[in-house]
Design brief:
Layout lengths: L3 H7 L5 E7 L10 E7 L10 E7 L9 E4 L1 H9 L3 E2 L1 H9 L7 H18 L10 H7 L1
Parallel strand pairs: 1-5
Antiparallel strand pairs: 1-2, 2-3, 3-4
């Protein structure tokens, strides 16, 4: 078990973050990420303290993006004061571990509005409200 206080005695001027470290094959254009607890000043793919989960952003044959994480260890690191990056906060929000990240909600609203604009007929008829229909009858 890793104790945060013993690690920070050796490492001054930083904090622990929970972020994604790329682990996929770069030349084959096959990204794959590890969700890790690492010091904020380390490189993205550099040395990390502990691996907390994985994320595969490419959909499988069932059109699913796979995410797995160890919720107990994430609770431990957040309890120790670890910061979450935005992509990790989004993933944990979608998984139901945290409240949804605000950018996830606004992005979904934008996509719904865009879909509504593309589906809207280009006719010139004005929509008739229910109150107007009753008056005409």
């Amino acid at each position: 078990m890793v104790h945060l206080s013993s690690l920070l005695k050796k490492y001054h001027g930083g904090y622990v973050v929970i972020r994604m470290a790329r682990a996929g094959h770069k030349q084959a254009n096959r990204p794959f990420y590890r969700i890790v607890a690492a010091f904020n000043k380390r490189a993205r793919d550099g040395k990390y303290i502990e691996q907390l989960g994985t994320y595969d952003p490419l959909p499988n044959i069932y059109n699913e993006k796979l995410v797995s994480f160890n919720s107990e260890r994430i609770k431990y690191w957040v309890g120790c004061g670890a910061h979450l990056t935005k992509p990790v906060a989004k993933l944990l929000g979608l998984a139901g571990f945290l409240p949804l990240h605000p950018m996830t909600i606004t992005e979904a609203e934008r996509r719904r509005a865009q879909a509504a604009l593309t589906e809207a007929p280009s006719g010139t008829e004005e929509p008739v409200e229910e109150g107007q229909k009753e008056e005409e009858s």
